[in-house]
Each structure stands twice: as C-alpha cells, then as structure tokens.
Amino acid sequence: MENFYVVKKDLVADFLIEEEAYAGVKEIGKTVAEDLELVSGCHAKQRSELSQCTMDRVILFATLGKSSMLMKLEEQRKISLADIREKREVYQMQ
Questions:
Q1: Which of 62, 77, 65, 71 is nearest to 18 (CA)?
Q2: Cα-atom radius of gyration of the chain, to the nearest Å?
Q3: Residue 26's pLDDT is what?
Q4: Are the CB atoms for 60 and 18 separated by under 8 Å?
C-alpha cells in the first residue's frame, strides 16, 4: 500500500460518513474528525456522499451489509471485505 496521509501540510482527507451506517459508526466518524482537528489544527470535511468529496483521499465510515458503496467496491474488486465479514467492531485499511 502506498503511503496514506490523513493530514499532509494543510491538506486533509475527506471523511465520508455514510447515511446508511449504524448510528455508532456515524458518531465515531464525527468524533475522529473532531479529534483530528484538535491534534493537527486542520479541519476534516465530513461528507455523506462520495460526489461531495473534493480530496483524492477519503476515509470511509460505513456498515458492512448496509453500505452500497462497500458492495460496489468489492464487486469491482477494488477492495476485499473477506477479513472483516462476520466480525463486530472492526476496521479495514485499503
């Protein structure tokens, strides 16, 4: 995997927090964005649709089984979700 920077200089990855995600997942996305701002001084934009994202780096907060985006990415073989299926409270970087 190439280097992934959440913050690099004054550029911050967009936080894509899907509407379909469980409430707890949405809350985690918002909290992480707020914490990132406290630590870095840079504001992460919180988006609910991929079309709203303006950065080339996106952090996706979604719920497996509820997310059409995760399903599409897996169908297109851009990601594999095999390692997180049937697990609770996990994350994956790809």
A1: 62
A2: 13
A3: 95
A4: yes
Residue 1 has pLDDT above 60, yes or no: no
- Report the chain's terminal Cα–Cα distance, integer Å: 7
DSSP secondary structure, 1-62, as one string:
-----SEETTEE-EEEE-TTS-HHHHHHHHHHHHHHHHHHS-PPPEESSGGG--SS-EEEE-
Contact 14, 45 (CB under 8 A): yes
Q: pLDDT of 45-87, one tens digit each?
A: 999 998 898 888 899 999 999 998 999 989 999 899 999 998 8
- Total-model pTM: 0.85
Given a contact cutoff of 8 angstroms between Cβ atoms, the answer to whether 48 and 20 are in contact is no
